[in-house]
Each structure stands twice: as structure tokens, then as C-alpha cells.
User: What shape does this take?
Amino acid sequence: MSAKNQESAKAYLADHKIPQIFESLLSCLMMERPDNPVEYIEKKMIEIRAIGTEKLNWETQVSHLHPYRDDIRRQFVRDGSVFDKEYAKLQGEIEEYKQRKKEQMENIAKESYVPELFQLTEAHAWRWLWSGPAFTKGASQASQASQASQPHAGLKH
Assistant: This one.
């Protein structure tokens, strides 16, 4: 596949939210483990069509299964999250929630951000290592030296 075709395929997937659709379906399947996954996927696709892909992410269809949705657990959530806000509204504690959220944002602003370094997976690390300029230069020199010392080394049997 040419670079132009790859970019076109990537754009198509992004424009139509294909990764989000699959993430949502896989999340549902992993959480609910239906007996008939094909029928289940068909049902979820109808729900996705009704929701619209612009509002879809990996947790859209499993958020009702989140432990913070449990009323017993939700009363202990005080982290400024959506779950905290929902429970605060139910309990008439919205002002307390706003104060918690403000304090949380102030604390985040005080922290210095240090981005995580990108870590290559083993498969990608090897591909990078073997295709890197240091290796290819060294490998070509080693190959030339080996072929010079063995006149039949380049022939395939």
C-alpha cells in the first residue's frame, strides 16, 4: 500500500470514527460477555446509530456498569469527577462539589507536568533497532567484509 493510500485509509477511519466504534463494542463485549456475541453486536450497532458516532467513545455503552454508578460507592467519591458531580446533585451538595473541583484544579495547576516518554513495544523496538542508521551502516560494512573473505557467501543454495 502506498503512503498516499495509507494516509487516505487513516483519514477514512478517523472521519468515520471507526476506532471509537470498535473500542465501544470491545468494551461492551469484555464487560458483559454475551452468549451470542454476533446478535449482541448487532443490537449495540443499532444503539450506536441512535447515539451517533460523534458522541461515542470506549465507555459510552458500559458507563452504567462503572462501580461509581453504585449509590453506596458513589457517596465516597470525592474527586471532582463526573460521578462526584452526579452524586452531589442528587444530594443537594453542588456547592461543596464546586469547591472540591476548584481546589482540585488549583492543585493540578501547582504541579509541574512531566510528560511520560514514549516506550517502544518489543516488536517495534527490534524493528527500530534493526532498521536504524547505526545498524544498517555497521551491517553493510560487516556484510561487505564477510563477502570479501568468503567468495561464495552471496550465493544461495
In short: The chain is about 65% helix and 0% strand.
